[in-house]
Amino acid sequence: MRSVGAVAVLLAGRIAAGAAPAAAQVHVTARTVPDSLTVGDRATLEVRVEAPAGLQVRFPKLVGPDDDVVIGPLQVEEPNATTARAAGNKIWIARYPLAVFRTGAVVLPPVPVGTGRDSIATVAQTDSVRFEVQSVLDDSLAAADIRDLKPQAAFPRLVWPWIAAGLAVLALAALVVWWIRRRRRPRAAVVPIARLRPAHEVALEALRVLEAQQLPLDGKFKEHHVRLSDILRRYLEDGFGIAALEETTDEILGELDRHGFDRGTIAAVRALCEESDLVKFAKHEPSVVECVQALNRVRDFVQGTSARSAAAGGATP
Q1: Angle CA(106)–CA(72)–CA(1) in degrees, nearest 5?
Q2: pLDDT tens digits for range 171-208
Q3: Class at the top of the CATH hierarchy for domain 197-316
Q4: Contact 66, 31 (CB under 8 A)
Q5: Among 211, 223, 209, which residue's Cα sits nearest to residue 286?
Q6: Residues of 262-294 as b/e, b for ≥16 C-beta within 10 angstroms?
């Protein structure tokens, strides 16, 4: 199918530009290029304006008459020496990209074009543009003997696949139930077996750590004796079952006497406890040498009683 009037003048909207003579008129025409379209082809709507030099020409933005007709952005070709006319006329050409997605007759509405000079403005418009859009199917394909699909072939219905599928589903369900019950079954708590360390080993290790910190060199005499007293009392508690962490010095000495310790051992513990009490409560400030000697006396006491502590079962996790 061909565009109706694709080459001939489809309009011409003729108007006078102000008080110009009849020769100085505005001529507006429209056509489609190419003049033969099929569905989805790209074409161009071309609007051509011939008007006197010095006029201002304004082309509008266009929208298709429906969703099946798409009109793209405007492109304007300004007058040039090639398109110049006699009598001082010039030619403006506006091109609109065009695509059509249906077959049959398509009618584009008139295109208004504004012209003016100084304070005088006028509008001229084209006639509506009508053209035909062909189908992409050629005559040979349209005439071909295309028949409908045959119905699906009927096959005999087999029962055993359904039975096998049902048995598989039942087996899977039974497996899931068994797995859920197994997970819910209470399990015996695993209690880690802590290694019991002899009380004298724990005390000697704590003394090594305290000695390495060198608190007396930093002037922390009270903190040094508090830590030292705590190590001694914890050793007596873990090694011999004496509640030394909660008892006073006199109570500790009474406990040692009841446990059968000799007078020398009791006297050594008394000296260690009283020295720590002086630093902690009487604000006595010993020298660095005295702090080191006190730590060595506690170490000697632990090492001297380690065998008796081990025999008594003194141990800690």
Answers
A1: 30
A2: 999 999 998 888 776 665 655 555 678 888 898 999 99
A3: mainly alpha
A4: no
A5: 223
A6: eeebbebbeebbebbeebeeeeeebeeebbeeb
Beta bridge partners, 259, equal none
**What distance in Å separates the CA atoms of residue 29 and residue 42, rounded to the nearest whole number?**
21
Does the 15-134 domain belong in CATH 3.40.630.30?
A: no
Strands 25-33 and 197-198: unpaired
Do 94 and 76 contact (CB within 8 A), yes or no?
yes
Terminal-to-terminal C-alpha distance of the chain: 101
Domain residue limits, the chain: 15-134, 197-316
- Tell me the HSE value of 169 on the side-chain side, using a 13 A CA sphere: 6
pLDDT at 18 exceeding the cut of 70: no
Q: How far apart are CA 261 and CA 301, in angstroms?
A: 12
CB proximity list for 36: less than 8 A, separation 6 or greater: 1, 2, 3, 134
Residue % of the chain over a pLDDT of 70: 81
What type of residue sits at position 182?
R
**What are the structure tokens assigned to 170, written together?**
């039942």
Cβ-contact 38, 136 below 8 angstroms: yes
The answer to whether 28 touches 11, Cβ cutoff 8 Å, is yes
Question: Do residues 28 and 124 make contact, with C-beta atoms less than 8 angstroms apart?
Answer: yes
3-class state of residue 247 by DSSP: coil
- Determine the length of the chain: 317
